[in-house]
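Hi both,

Apologies for the delay on this - the queue was longer than expected. I finally got the magnesium ion-bound model through. Below you'll find the protein sequence and the ligand SMILES exactly as submitted, and right after that the structure tokens for the full complex including the ligand.
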Amino acid sequence: MSEVAFPLNAPVSATASNGNASSANILVIDDESSIRESLEVLLSLEGYSTVAVGDGAEGLRQLELDNFDLVLLDLALPGQSGLELLPQIRERQPDLPVIMITAYGTVDNVVEAVRAGAENFVQKPWDNEKLLADIRSAVARHRAEEENLQLKRALKQRYNFSNLVGKSESMLRVFDLVAQVAPSRSTVLIQGESGTGKELIAKAIHANSPRREKSFVPVNTGAMPSELLESTLFGHVKGAFTSAVASKKGLFEVANGGTLFLDEIATMGLDTQAKILRVLQDRRFMHLGGVQEIQVDVRIIAATNVDLRQAVREGKFREDLFYRLNVITVDLPPLRARREDIPLLAQHFLDFYANENGVPPRKLSSDALRALVDYDWPGNVRQLENAIERGVVLSSGPIIGADLLPGEITGRSFQDALLDHNPNSSLFDILEVIERRIIIEKLERCNWNQTEAAEQFRIPLSTLNQKIKRLNIEIRKRGRE
Ligand SMILES: Nc1ncnc2c1ncn2[C@@H]1O[C@H](COP(=O)(O)OP(=O)(O)OP(=O)(O)O)[C@@H](O)[C@H]1O
Ligand SMILES: [Mg+2]
């Protein structure tokens, strides 16, 4: 006889993936009503919602009706035993954690239940605190897995994940790793040449972490002298040093609850390294000149474009800090090692810059695309992005030809490109193309300020305006720094 403690159409609990742990929905399958009742009381005191049933058939039915985060399953059920039921639950929901409950906890049963996929095993009479702790950790693990699974699914559907574009094996592996590490608090070290996307990866990790609502605080540790860097990171009290006229919060406090991105970490001085190590170890620090310890919860992501191991060998980087930072390493391959990403990235930037400049969509000519794929990209994705932005700004029609790409990429001079593309053009026409291009380039450099461009060309503004009209140059306002 099946007993149902809650109405069958009990409201569906908060979804399995994003409610907090205390709103979890738990299915109890036990034939003893006193056990069901005491579990219901215990679980409701913890804020869990519960559906309690007396046999396996009803349990399986409930699994279809509702979303659960965990099952508490009695081993000795009438009819089908818990051990027989377990594989059927797992078949329906392979990831749902099941904790077995029994009065007869023989070793054989434990082994068999664990082998059949039980998360854990609890003996009657149970210790409430221990049972709740087991439930909490199983629910948290289940949710982390669910979240991870959803991210992975999203990744498979499109090659664009948190603004990260790429379809090469190596980048898909990076995306997978990002999805996997994002939910945790682990420190991440991102290594890669300049322009490979280290900061973008750091942002993606933050954006996919439970800290996403809090700040992502980037700090370029390489750009500052030690004292300034330390006061920036840790803050200072009034009078800590000559120019400290007022007390100031440090970025560790600003990033509290969020993520601190330590960029160019290899160039940080050894003293500052020691202080950072302390915060990583103790999660507390002091303002410069201060006496009070401040506790923070900050996730650290560090980036470097040099080989940190090498820096350790050379005595420029503390070995202990290296191991603290290097819990998870994301190695970003240079663009030349993943050429299949180039067309995809190029398209991404074409769309982005056409949109940003308010011009219709642009396409690359096949020559231009070939030149991009063949080039070695010492400045990696950033260099590709700049080349495309420039092409979009300089182009007057829908197609961006190789002549609009920087010479170092095509390996051809501008003259070559002009002559190849216009074998039958008159000298006058070719000069016009050159004049047009030179004027656009100058306007670009002057941030489209015509007065400034005219001054630099040493021509009257009216002459420049006539040329702009005659050469059909579209004036653009640049919004980007
Ligand atoms: N996979 C990618 N998909 C889309 N855009 C990317 C990708 N990788 C890099 N970018 C873009 O390229 C530019 C450079 O990336 P980012 O600043 O993250 O590189 P970095 O490795 O931090 O460079 P540096 O070492 O010079 O600081 C950014 O505008 C970024 O948005
Ligand atoms: Mg960077």
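Main takeaway for now: The chain has a mean pLDDT of 84.

I'll put the files on the shared drive as well.

H.
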